[in-house]
Each structure stands twice: as C-alpha cells, then as structure tokens.
Amino acid sequence: MVYPIVLVIHNALRWLVLSSLLAALVSGYSGWLGSRSYQRADQTIRVVATSIAHTQLLIGFYLYAISPIVSYYWRFGASAEAPEFRFFSLIHIGLMFTSVIIMTVGSSKAKRQSDARQKFKTTAVYFTIGLILILIAIPWPFSPLAARPWTRGF
Ligand code: HEM
C-alpha cells in the first residue's frame, strides 16, 4: 500500500522544508543586516532549501493524486461536509504551490544579482513570504481546518 508510506514521507519532509527554510532566512537576514560578503555556503543553503521544497511539492502532487480525501472531495464536492476535504483539495495545494513558486522566483532572482546585499535581501524577503504561507497551510494538530499529527510512523 503506497498511500500510507507517502503520507509518512510527506509528513516528515515538512520538518526538513521548515528547517532548511529557517537556515536560508538566518543566512539572508544576517547577511542583509550585517552587510557581510556573499559566501558559497549562503548559496548552498538557498539552493538546498529550494530543492527540498521542490521535492515536497512533487511528493505533494503524487499524494494529491492518490489521496482518498481529495478524490472524495472531487466526487462529492460541496456535499463533502468536513472542512478538511476542502482544505486539502483547494487551500493546502493552492498556498503550498504559491509558496514554492515565490521561493523559486526569489532564489533565481538572488542568483542573478551581483550585489551581496541585494542577494541577501531578495532571499530574506521572498523566503519570509514563502515561510508565512507554508506555516498557514500546514495542517498543524491545533488547526481548526484540518488537524494532522506532528509526526507519523510506519
Ligand atoms: C512545502 C510544501 C508542503 C508542506 C510543508 C506540506 C505538508 C503537509 C503535511 C504536514 C501534511 C499532513 C500529513 C499527515 O497527514 O501526516 C500534508 C498533507 C497533505 N498534503 Fe501537503 N505539504 C506541502 C505541499 C503539498 C502540495 C503542493 C500538495 C499537492 C499538490 C500537497 C498535498 C497534500 C495532501 C493531498 C495531503 C493530505 C493527504 C491525506 O490525508 O490523504 N501538499 N501536507
């Protein structure tokens, strides 16, 4: 059964998405506000954070295709009363997709810029917007829209 395995991976990868995003933000803000030079490590952190987000996006699309919650929503639409059906079918995918696009645009814009301060600033601003959207769209255990566990085991 592939579905529970993908769910465990998607759940766990959220922590890597968040921690790599935080690391990129520390690099971005410390460089921007501290006016230091742009190091290879700053680039690596930015690229790794974007790649982990892309991986989560791909797994998310696969999960979307096989999730019984999503297929139930598209089958029964508005009559699917529990808010989580609508949440995963529309809100979660919409916000997460937008967030990863914003991070990708920010990362490639920062890559093309030559001024160190601008590179840091671009990373800090775009990734902050990305993080806020991700934090809103994660089904935290305390979320009224769709509550899911902090971690999942096999
Ligand atoms: C950075 C991006 C993303 C993060 C951090 C994230 C995080 C999560 C988390 C923590 C869950 C709960 C998993 C569980 O029940 O244990 C979840 C569920 C889900 N995610 Fe994502 N997600 C992201 C992107 C996406 C995208 C882009 C899609 C769709 C294309 C997607 C589709 C889903 C679906 C369908 C579920 C519910 C599956 C089910 O319970 O049947 N996710 N996501």
Automatic annotation (TrEMBL):
User: What's the source species for this entry?
Assistant: Spirosoma soli
The alphabetized UniProt keywords are: Membrane, Transmembrane, Transmembrane helix
Q: What is this protein called?
A: Cytochrome B
Give the highest taxon in the source lineage: Bacteria
Locate the transmembrane regions by residue number.
12-33, 45-65, 85-103, 124-142
